[in-house]
Amino acid sequence: MLFxxxxxALVTPFQNGKIDEEALRRLIDFQVENGTTVLVPCGTTGExxxxxxxxxxxxxxxxxxxxxxxxxxxxGAGSNSTAEALRLHKNAARVGADGALHITPYYNKPMQSGxxxxxxxxxxxxxxxxxxxxxxxxxxxxLAPETVLRLAQIKTVVGIKEASxxxxxxxxxxxxxxxxxxxxxxxxSLTHPLYSLGAKGAISVTANVMPKDLALQYDAAKRxxxxxxxxxxxxxxxxxxxxxxxxxPIPVKATLNLMGLIEEEYRLPLTVISPQNRERLKEVxxxxxxxx
Length: 292
Fold this sequence. Notes:
CATH topology: TIM Barrel
CATH class: Alpha Beta
Largest sheet: 8 strands, parallel
Helix content: 40-55%
Radius of gyration: 18 Å
Order of helices and strands: EEEHEHEHEHEHHEHEHEHHHH
Number of strands: 10
């Protein structure tokens, strides 16, 4: 299986308005040392929407170089412009990423035929493996199971990050796709139930903060120990929710700052977490034994 396990949707650290490459390397080491199997830079959590093309390319390059084959890199390369997505996909292949994550085109809301044509154009442009990303709450468009099943017939399309929130939709996909195609949880609070349905991993926001626990959860589910997977689910459930008290990645960056790993800096129009939500977040972290 090309991608599986606990994968992290990496934040992009900034300092004084620029990419903080030193902090990015620190985050990568933290993940590798705590059992994460795949790094996913430049996704939604990585604030890809406000990175310049040069910055986007730099984050992918630094991640690939610093990972240095210790773990795999699934590079965020999505866009609502097929031409732009193709450029990002080509760059991910050029710098040595193991695959590329492609979100459904947002804002322009294509029909299912347009979604199929978009992903097919990307998948057939090179041999670089493609993971689809469905998050209708962000994009305004849902990648229907029947479209996923069509795309899964293309050899370079190897999986989907499913964040529709629908266990029915995930079930339809898992039941119908060919061997070698994997569904990954894209919503931390649904990872345990998705594991029970046959998901092969999770691309997680919470893994930025608790990578060891989430690696343990996947390992437990893989060997059929769903009691332990459920235990970790409830241990982290309040954190899963707290990390979305405000728009992702605001709370997770605030948390990583409390942990001393990054500066708390965002790109407008994202702004710092509100004082009341910062306190709510701290209470959840305190309950996990993380006292700052």
